[in-house]
Amino acid sequence: MNQYDVTVIGSGPGGYVAAIRCAQLGMKTAIIEKYTTLGGTCLNVGCIPSKALLDSSHHYEDAVKHFETHGIEIPGEVKVNLEKMIARKQSVVDQTTKGIQFLMDKNKIDVYQGIGSFKDATHINIALTDGKTETIASKNIIIATGSKPSTLPFIKLDKERIITSTEALELKEVPKHMIVIGGGVIGLELGQVYKRLGAEVTVVEFMDRIIPGMDAGLSKELMKVLKKQKMKFALSHKVKSVERVGDEVVVKADDKKGQVVEFKGDYCLVSVGRRPYTDGLNAEAAGVKLDERGRVDVNEYLQTNVSNIYAIGDVVRGAMLAHKAEEEGTMVAELLAGQKPHINYNLIPGVVYTWPEVAAVGKTEEELKEAGIEYKSGQFPMRALGRARASMDIDGFVKILADKNTDEVLGVHMIGARCADLITEGVTAMEFRASAEDMARMSHAHPTYAEAVKEAALAATEDRPIHI
Asked: What sequence ranges are listed for the domain FAD/NAD(P)-binding (predicted)?
């Protein structure tokens, strides 16, 4: 029987990072993955493929709508080859997952392809993909089994017309009308992909705004921009039924007045969130407790009620984000090595990869008001930047929230070009407990989108932005 210091169940961003860090710290490490490729949801059917399609569809939209303005003339009609676009997406996924396999080999991590389930607290049974079974022993075990798309109890997913994000990444045709249930990150990103490619897209959302977990100002601005791009929205609508009739999908929902509204399309994307995935784990055999929502219950050190078993990522509490899982994987590895790592969950940024991109870190205005914290707000529009005008990406703004008395930055919220990258400036500043004045006094290269951060900080500090 093979014996290990640490075994990780699941090879998504949390799992493979945990395994690499454990190996770096001198532990004999194994990782178990049920699928034939490493990388979990993020690399195979999540973050990476969706960004590949977002980028491809963005290029197409630019060619159709913006190239002529830039003085680029293309003879003939610009056409979408969806099959080739999907194939390019898959090649990006393949390269990335092979990269993870390379890292496993480089760090001398044993990889088991199969389903891992607990035999007891220190032994794992593996149903290998070749049909054989194997049992390994491990001093410590990290559960990193991730999440799966959620649905609603009355929706029957046929994975052909009534689909999740997984199937939306493999469509054989551009929908005529895609109905998206859920106005969160996944629904908006994939909705924008197919809107760019020519589909009519209607987003049906239960809450009174899209991206409801983010600052209300971001929600309002993003919906304004997406409406300008001809996406349609039905907010405060409670979906009550989804039925397929031939090649048509009929969605019925109650609006805020309680009246039934009907939507008809040829595809329905169900994007109502994700659920922790523990199917087949046999956690009870090890005595590991799950909470009322099916997540693995952990303490502040990500330790379960069984002292040698830890859990990270989507399968535990908190935001279901790949980078949050990576930080947790690193933290557990370093704890096992006797170090004293920490994670500030308030400083895990959130990003929506639509265009314009949306990104945020720290507290929203709503949270600060609810907590009774006095704050200042400084905001600067992207359209006032020379760089934004040069690239024709003028939508959006940067908003910085700072403590009214101390000037410490409490939240950074932005929507615009490259905000997914820009938000790290806010994370860095807040990690070192910078003031808005600190951010305002930093030199920012000109012309850049990042100048909006400096200007918003000036607005928050003394209400003295230079360029508006």
From this structure: 4-329
